[in-house]
Amino acid sequence: MSMLLDQLPFALWAKDVKGRYVGANQQWLDDERFVNVSEVVGKNDYDLFEPVRAATHIRRDWEMFDEGRPLIAVDTIERDGQPETQHVTRLPLRNENLEVIGIVGFSSSTSVIADTIDQSDAVHIDPITGVGVQQALHDRIGKLIDSDQPGSLMIIRLDDYEIVSDSLGHEFGDMLLRAAARRLTTAFGPHLFRNRNDEFAVVLPSVDHGHLREIGEAMLTKWRQPFVIDGNQIYGSVSIGVAALTGRARSTLVLQDGALAVSDAAKHGGSRMVIYSPEHRRAADDEFAQQMLVRRAVSDKEFNLHWQPIVNGNTGQMFAFEGLLRWRPAGGSQILPAAEFFPFLERSGLIVQLGKFVIAEACRQHVAWREHPSIKTPIPVHINVSARQFMSGVLASDVISTLEENGVAPNQLTIEVVESAIAHPSDELLRDLHTLREAGVKIAIDDFGASHSSIASLASLPIDIAKVDRRLTSRIVPGTPEPILEAFATVFDAHGITPVAQGIESEEQLEWLRSRGWNLVQGYHLGQPRDAHDITPLLSGSSVR
User: Which DSSP letter does residue 545 get?
Assistant: First the structure.
């Protein structure tokens, strides 16, 4: 097999999920100036290449892992002092359970492609939109840089492309792309290129911010007019990022700057334009460094659960324990709460992988407490689940199978979902909530009252428990009514929902809630989150007060 792979006219390599090379064919070894595959096996890109190139490889790998599907990219690298364009395809390598266990890559330089395909004009034209492809964009930027002429790159991202494509189908999405290309071509002609799936790019011979803003505002105005596609009116918006070409060494750096700017525009709601500044690069580098740390922490199992009690405020008896994710970085003594790293987990998609650990650990801990000789009654456990986990499509099956594997009764587990996630629930979320509820798992809304979801939605969702946001309980003043909390209590009672008051930090708050029939409470006054090892000795009477 290795002899066959060595005869292929393109480079081939493979890595494991930690980014370590596990193999390569002779073409790849020759291209990268290695003699034997043993020089690369077990090493990562930072071991083999200079930092900028290594970081580029790793970012591409992560993008493919996060998407879970093939990624095709065009990279320009320097080899022997000369720029070389590489066309790289990355494919996820899966085991028999369809879990991603690595990555297989194919790469070929421009010279190889010239020998293997017809170099006609059609190669440089996107077949869907009829505008220049990304390679043609690279070439245009490179020529402008080589000529030392001033210029700017403008990236235009369709904010609603994925929604339209997912809702109406990919064929309709292609029609939207063609309509967008036609609209942009009228303004930019041959200067327009298709950059990525939902992005177009324009190379402009100007670096004047005032002029560029005028062009950007004109594009934003154009997008206020709907497209008419297949008899449907489609409204949308675009995000625009701009980066200067002047003084840059490679087209890839300009494209990276433009990508950072357009991502910033999209992150702040879209329908706006952002001009790249060095601050964008610093923020991206910080994000990159943080994601590397978090990914390593997931791989090295540096996360664990701390447990905070939910208590019957009248009796002091423990009702349940909520498992809260914590991170103790390797070599450090500080324990970081979820707020410090959870955004990175969600953006990277690692929350799905770590969520499986949380489910398993919660079940394991429940069993450990259930089988402890001094604990008289089973202790129900709560865990938090993000909207990103529901999007995976396998959350409900993962939960149910983990309960069965550990011998945990479904009614001993409560899944907590933040209110913002159910304000506009996806089909996957609704399906999984109903599946879990039918299996006997309890469902709780966390931070209820923090966002703007309708109280009326409580009647249509399978909800057992509503945990009221701490910002509402923090306003409690002894002897003073709190109309919102009192109204919530009435609504919960009408729908058969058990209320829990969060963020209780004083005896005065607790007494106010007791006097108004709020039995279940949670907060530092009742108990701080602690490691299970520290909590277990306190549970012999199932009381934490």
Answer: -
Residue 62 belongs to domain with CATH number: 3.30.450.20
Its domain, for residue 146, covers 120-276
371 in the same domain as 519: yes
- Using only C-alpha atoms, what is the Rg of the chain? 28
pTM for the model stands at 0.57
Over residues 491-512, the pLDDT tens digits come to 898 889 999 999 999 999 999 9
Among residues 117, 149, 170, the one where a domain terminates is 117
Q: 419 pLDDT exceeds 70?
A: yes
Best CA proximity match to 543, nearest among 321, 325, 357, 232: 321
pLDDT at 349: 77
* CA distance between the termini of the chain: 67
Last residue of a domain, one of 64, 83, 117: 117
243-246, Cβ contacts within 8 angstroms, sequence gap of 24 or more:
243/152, 243/153, 243/155, 243/275, 243/276, 244/150, 244/151, 244/152, 244/153, 244/207, 244/276, 245/141, 245/144, 245/145, 245/150, 245/151, 245/152, 245/153, 245/203, 245/207, 246/150, 246/151, 246/207
Q: What is the pLDDT of residue 1?
A: 46
